[in-house]
Design goal:
By secondary structure, this protein is of the alpha/beta class. It contains 9 helices and 11 strands. Helix 2 links the parallel strand 2 and strand 3.
């Protein structure tokens, strides 16, 4: 079984593609190298497959599969040329014998996925799914988009902010406090969670606080008008920590023949936006 085949089989167990939001998402094997690198036994994890990240991966002759959480190929096309940045990335991967796999929303929605990991850093409580998947795979009961985490005890918003910063290793984040409150006096019990861009999932959910990477200006205002707080961490900051905290070890344990497979995480990949 090739390295790519083992990755596909392992991810089908961890984050089945049937859980992805395929009406708009593009998941699974995006590039299958026709002539795979010889003796390549390394999987390279990244959130975004940018040109600098690709250069980092291809410099390592042991890398045979790149797992890019966000799909580098998203829109349909009629030709493959180097003038298009995304197509150039795909062409360089294929020419180098490196395949590309993208789990994206299947990894958000699965059990023990990114949204569950986000919930795990918020404090003791219970977590349920906002939009449960219909007919999920046997080992994925409770999968679906978004999570609602209910704390055992109400805590001030400023304490939740501290927990989020610690969990995501962030020095700063963006905070909207409900009108008429401060982070010290606004108490939080119910936290609605969606990794990445959460407006479509979180809008209208009954919660004290929304936690996501990004939301539109008017979506944030609407939440504040309804007495809800909003924490925005920037899109990929809600996703990147999962690679080292959960995915690397879980994938390694699940891989068939994983004893001779290595997994590395990009040191170049980062959110393009920083607060300065």
């Amino acid at each position: 079984m090739s390295l790519l085949q083992r990755v596909v089989k392992a991810m089908d167990h961890l984050a089945p593609l049937s859980l992805a939001e395929t009406a708009w998402d593009n998941v699974g094997v995006l590039v299958e190298a026709p002539f795979p690198r010889q003796n390549a036994n390394r999987i390279f994890l990244t959130i975004d497959l940018t040109t600098p990240v690709l250069e980092e991966a291809l410099k390592d002759p042991k890398v045979g599969v790149i797992m890019a959480y966000h799909p580098p190929l998203f829109r349909s096309f009629k030709r493959l040329t180097l003038s298009d940045e995304k197509q150039a990335i795909a062409l360089k991967c294929a020419a180098s014998g490196v395949s590309v796999y993208s789990p994206h929303t299947s990894l958000d929605n699965c059990r023990n996925g990114i949204n569950d990991w986000l919930a795990s850093g918020l404090g003791n409580g219970s977590t349920t799914t906002i939009n449960a998947a219909s007919n999920p795979p046997e080992n994925q009961q409770g999968a679906g988009s978004g999570r609602l985490h209910v704390l055992k005890e109400k805590v001030p918003l400023e304490k939740v902010v501290h927990r989020v910063k610690k969990h995501l290793n962030l020095p700063h984040l963006r905070l909207c406090t409900p009108f008429g409150h401060t982070p010290a006096d606004f108490l939080v019990e119910k936290i609605a969670i969606c990794a990445g861009s959460g407006g479509g999932v979180l809008n209208g959910v009954d919660a004290d606080l929304y936690l996501t990477g990004e939301m539109g200006h008017h979506e944030v205002l609407a939440a504040a008008e309804k007495g809800r707080g909003v924490i925005l961490c920037e899109h990929t900051n809600t996703e990147r920590g999962y690679l080292s905290a959960v995915l690397r070890e879980t994938l390694l344990k699940t891989l068939q023949g994983g004893d001779n497979v290595d997994i590395v995480i990009s040191s170049v990949d980062r959110d393009p936006l920083v607060i300065v």
